[in-house]
Amino acid sequence: MLDYNHFSRNSKALWKWFGTVKFSRDFLWGVCILTLVPLVSVLGAILVPYATTAFDISISLEQVWGVLGAFLFLYLFALGQRVAYDHKVIRKINIPAPKQIQNLLKTTTDREGFLINIELISAFKNSYPLSQTNLVNHVKEKGIEITAKRVRDYIVGLEELEIIHSPRTESWKKQYTLTEKGRWCYECTRRCFPKRYFWFVYRNYLGRKNLTQYPSRNQKT
């Protein structure tokens, strides 16, 4: 039996979501990317057998399914490719944070175009304190050709914007951890800069990032 209360709640939730969506060109393009090929494949599977009968075309169902299967395989293969974050792609990313933080996360190295600040923030994925030497080594392990001095400059920039913090100790060696803003940025990099193309379209074209609001104040830990 149909549960009208359940149906009503779902309808209101869906309508509320549509009210928050901005139907921009990117959003519509994202919908096309994720739905057009599957819809064409389903329609093809339904209509092609009728067309072959109506127009007396000698093609077997096995051949039809083979073509559609290959088409879908290439489509899924394309969605599973790694995203190449060049300047054109980076411009499409909308980060729900102050402009200064947007620019910080989109900063790339001059030569190779690596997202250097994202690489530094991602080094804290295990939540362990890291020294400048640890962060320099992390960047080198990623194959980014940049001097240790330049890496330290980026580290200082993260510290100035209160993304990372090193508590005062008697030791001269700084040990950095992510602040509340830094943890938000870490989560943002995972959601706004995904590795695979499917998630890039879902989160940046359709706007499904599910991020909390950027912290207005920082609680250093």
Q: What does this protein structure show overall?
A:
The protein is an all-alpha fold. It folds into two domains: 22-79, no CATH class; 87-195, Winged helix-like DNA-binding domain superfamily/Winged helix DNA-binding domain (Arc Repressor Mutant, subunit A, Orthogonal Bundle), CATH 1.10.10. It is built from ten helices and two strands. It has a two-stranded antiparallel ribbon. Helix 7 packs across helix 8. The longest helix has 30 residues, at 25-54. The radius of gyration is 24 Å and the shape is elongated. The termini are far apart. The mean pLDDT is 82.
List keywords for this structure.
221 residues, Arc Repressor Mutant, subunit A, 10 helices, elongated
Number of domains: 2
Class of secondary structure makeup: mainly alpha
**Mean pLDDT, rounded to whole units?**
82
CATH architecture of the largest domain: Orthogonal Bundle
User: Strand order, biggest sheet?
Assistant: 1-2
Query: Rounded to an integer, what's the Rg over CA atoms?
Result: 24 Å
Termini gap: 53 Å
Got a strand count? Answer: 2
Q: What fraction of the residues are assigned to beta strands by DSSP? A: under 5%
- Please summarize the sheet with the most strands: 2 strands, antiparallel
